[in-house]
Each structure stands twice: as structure tokens, then as C-alpha cells.
Amino acid sequence: MRKVLVTGFEPFGGDRVNPSWEVVKKLQDVQLSGVSVAVRQLPCVYGKAIEALNQAIDETDPLMVICVGQAGGRVDFSIERVAINVDDARIPDNDGQQPIDAPIVKDGPAAYFAQLPVKALVNGLREAGIPASVSQTAGTYVCNHVMYGLLHRMTQSDCRVKKGGFIHVPYLPEQAALHPGTASMSAQTLLEALELTIAIALHTEHDLILAEGATH
């Protein structure tokens, strides 16, 4: 069966959980819209995160890759539009690295745009009653690092991924309880949003991705 790869991150910055992984791990081997979902946890570490993502792509040969990360302070399910070629860390990663103004790919393009139907996703999620928006920045931390790495990998001639992009999710309620006044979203709502995202992304553009992936 054709595969979709979905990734989440390990906890970072002192948090005990990361909502991206808490939700993504529930999709392991779930079948949605004619595909089987494979999941992987990525380290919140510059360099190693892209290495782990590329290994997961090699292992699963997916039609589509959706990477998910935590953005404490965000108020909705945020579909990222663009990744930029810079690592600039506000806090150290989980290996203690804190790059400043460093390129992700030397001599790579300044930016890549998500290969997902971002507007269709937002519209579909809102119609389902789930708060969602298009985000114009994935930041400069490990989330942006991974999004850029994914989209760069998709430009390579040996890569068979047809669609790919990144989603930021808010805190879970138990995290927001430690940050009064901060927005949150339940794990169940996040899971429903992610399942709907996969379905919409697979079936936009006249089912092109499923048709092209018929030989997978």
C-alpha cells in the first residue's frame, strides 16, 4: 500500500511533552484515504533532524511527507507556506547547539515554498470547525530547518515524494496550564485536524498525487 510519512518532534526547551509527537504517534499504521501512514519522531537537533528525516524517507518511500512541530503561543493549526535557508536559534537545541545566521544548505536557494495546497487545507479545516491559518514563517529553529531540508530533498532527482510541507501546532492544554493566557488545542482536535489534512492534501488537484503514486 502507498505510504504517507508524518513526523513529530521530541520535547525541547524544558517541556516534558511535545504535542506534535503526542498526536503523530497515534497515526502509526493507520489507513486513511487509500494510504498507510508511517510515523517517525525526529530529534530537536540541527543536522540530526534532517538526517533522521532523510532516513525515514528512504525507509518508507512515501508519496507525501508532512512534518509537524510545536509552536507554543500559536492559536491554531498553522500550515506553513515557506521555509528559509537559515538556522538562527533563540535557544539551544537538544544537543546544545545554538547557530546564528548559518545556512541550512550552503549555496542553496534562499527559500522553498511548501508543496502542499495550503489554502485548500485551511479552508477545509475551518469548514470542519477547526481553527486553522496559513503561516508565513516557520521561524528559524529546528522546525524551519526540517521543512527546508524536506523541500530541498524533494528537488533531488532520486526523490519520489510528490507533496510535502510543515504544520505548526499549539500547546496541549496541560502545557498551556503552565503558561497562563497561552492558547492550546486538545490532542483529539489535533488528531482530527491531521487526519483531515492528509485526506485533503491527497485528494486536491484532481487526485494527482494518488494517480502519480499508483506504482509505489
UniProtKB/TrEMBL annotation:
The primary location reported for this protein is cytoplasm
First-level EC class: hydrolase
Superkingdom, natural source: Bacteria
Supply the EC number(s).
3.4.19.3
Which terms are listed as keywords in the entry?
Answer: Cytoplasm, Hydrolase, Protease, Thiol protease
Keyword presence, Disulfide bond = no
Q: Which InterPro entries match?
A: Peptidase_C15, Peptidase_C15-like, Peptidase_C15-like_sf, PGP-I_bact-type, PGPEP1_Cys_AS
> What compartments host this protein?
Cytoplasm
Q: Per the record, what are the reactions this protein catalyses?
A: Release of an N-terminal pyroglutamyl group from a polypeptide, the second amino acid generally not being Pro
Provide the family line: Belongs to the peptidase C15 family.
Entry function = Removes 5-oxoproline from various penultimate amino acid residues except L-proline.
What name does this protein carry?
Answer: Pyrrolidone-carboxylate peptidase
Species this protein is from: Rouxiella silvae
